[in-house]
Amino acid sequence: MRQIVYKIATVHDWRDAIAKGHYSGSADDVRDGFIHLSSRSQLPGTLEKHFRGKTDLVLIAFEEDKLGHGLKWETSRGGELFPHFYGRLPASNALWERTLDTGPDGALIIQDEWFTC
Fold first, then answer.
1. pTM of the entire predicted model
2. Cβ–Cβ < 8 Å for 7, 54
3. Where in this chain does the entry annotate a coiled-coil region (predicted)?
């Protein structure tokens, strides 16, 4: 079974990454020295903690195996292992991207059908 990891980015930053061929990271990623990613189960917590109330965001899926040695699972929030990518994230490795809509309460909406084959 293939493992998928996810990046949340602004539409502008992701469009820029597609034009350049790679994503260099958000300001937080640059500050921390790696690109923050999430597993499927970590997405709700990441969205709530870091992106609630924000707009113009996309969710981008990447197959773990295609990210190579730059992908590392490291201890982060609450001692949980999170995927971190060291280097430039190749835009061409994206499986798909989906626009994240904001609900009336400011929470970002994830559609379950995005994750079915």
1. 0.89
2. no
3. none
Q: What is the pLDDT of residues 21-67, one digit of tens each?
A: 999 999 999 999 999 999 999 998 898 888 888 889 999 999 999 99
DSSP assignment of 21-85, as one string? TEE---HHHHHHTSEE-B-GGGHHHHIIIIITT--SEEEEEEEGGGGGGGEEEEE-GGG-EEEEE
Q: Does 14 have pLDDT greater than 70?
A: yes
- Under DSSP, is residue 38 helix (H, G, I), strand (E, B) or coil? strand
Domains of the chain (ranges; CATH) run: 4-106 (3.20.170.20)
Helix spans in 1-117 (H): 11-20, 27-32, 43-46
Distance, in Å, from the CA atom of 64 to the CA atom of 112, rounded to the nearest integer, reads 20
If phi > 0 it is left, if psi is from -120 to 50 it is alpha, else beta; for residue 49 that is alpha
How far CA 50 is from CA of 42, 46, 67, in Å, comes to 12, 6, 24
Alpha-carbon span 56 to 77, nearest angstrom: 25
